[in-house]
Amino acid sequence: MNETELTIVDESASCACCAAPATTPAEAPDATVYAVGGMTCGGCAGRVTAAVTDLPGVREARADPATGQVAVYADPQPDTERIAAAVTAAGYTFAGPVGA
């Protein structure tokens, strides 16, 4: 039987897919932040980010599964209904703007 030895370089590090974003949506003052249900990992956040980024006018989106939010940077900001449709089409629950 072959044995493989694995060395853990940094026990506190997580995979790139699940690593926390550098800026959480709540810390994004120039963005509109929306609540999204059902994100559990970085893969989920990537799908929400991609879906929202595909909308016309959106220059950047940052989804965070830890907070259940997506920050949308756009000029002009897309209609809430379009963002809701994109999030829902990606398989997640849209819960509306945060703080509205």
TrEMBL record:
It holds the Pfam family HMA. Residues 30-95 form the HMA domain. One of its GO terms (molecular function) is metal ion binding. Gene3D superfamilies: 3.30.70.100. This is HMA domain-containing protein.
